[in-house]
Amino acid sequence: MSLGDKLEAAWQRRAPLRDAPDTNAYRLLNRAADGFPELAVDRYDDVLVANVYSAGARLRPPAEVLEALAERVGARAVYVKYRPVQASVLDEDARGELAPSAPVLGQAVDRVVVRENGLHFEVRPAEGLSTGLFLDMREARAFVRANAAGQTVLNCFAYTCGFGVAALKGGAARALNLDVSRRHLDWGERNMRLNGFQPVRTDFLAGDVFDWLQRFAKRGQKFDVVIVDPPSYSTTRTTRFSVERDAGRLAALAASVVHSGGTLIACNGGSRFPVMLKMAGYDNLVVLGKSPHPVTLQIDGESPGERRFSGARPGVQDRKPRRLSPWTPARAAQRKSGLPDLRHEN
Hints:
Blueprint lengths: L2 H11 L1 H4 L6 E6 L8 E6 L2 E7 L9 H11 L3 E7 L8 H7 L6 E2 L5 E5 L2 E5 L14 H9 L5 E5 L5 H8 L4 E6 L2 H13 L9 E3 L2 H10 L4 E6 L4 E3 L4 E3 H13 L2 E9 L5 H8 L15 E4 L9 E4 L17 H7 L11
Parallel strand pairs: 3-4, 8-9, 8-11, 9-10, 11-14
Antiparallel strand pairs: 1-2, 2-3, 4-5, 6-7, 12-13, 14-15, 15-16
Helix pairs in contact: 5-6, 9-10
């Protein structure tokens, strides 16, 4: 298949997203799935961000591909991010070299506000390796929004508070956002304002997630829903986090602050999370759905052996669940008539 044919096929696959009036942020080109193993291109309205993946020397993305995509979407700028195999070993200077602040095509764009299922988010394409919105969590945010009515939600590793915005738009009673970076939480507050909410400063907590979870557990503060979306690695002045090493402890702490009958949602780690939950003492697991989609753990009792785990891809019906979680698609369908349909609001 020629380069032009591959681009046309990828373009046609995105037709449902391109035609959606309430969404203009999505992955336009997805590596090997579209015939470009070392290249992914994300669209943020009229700005494109090309992600180059290479284990060896830094490769320049093919100019003809970027120019063709830019012409199709009418892009005013195209940025490039070079994705390292292991970014955890890089210092800030090295990270800066991997995410040039100047676009390779067009004029510099400091900020663009995008739409995702009617929600609005601020994206900064020159910010660094991460631009403010992880597009692969679009379905997960829609899942949270569709089931948040009346719930108290704790959003761990909140970053720019995308899950918090989705929860409040879905009618959550409260969304508490927790992240180590005050700057990112401030960004999250701007996202709240973009969606018509007046942020409450005390709902944006800066600090180490483990420390805050321990505080909540110590004082008996619990939530209906706890969302855990950790980075693969994270470093602060005093701590270093790794999903591979610390997810079991994280899962145990997060589950300890979920109300009985509530839900723990784990978004990073995919199929590794059931294993890590077993390591944390949650032995009675029912695993449904496939990685990398979010998985949910329903907290049915106070001891690990009484808890049920059900992972499901949003929008996919579970076949034979042992016990329906309040957040499974089946339960969501039962409640749909009683929930406001906010997915297409602006």
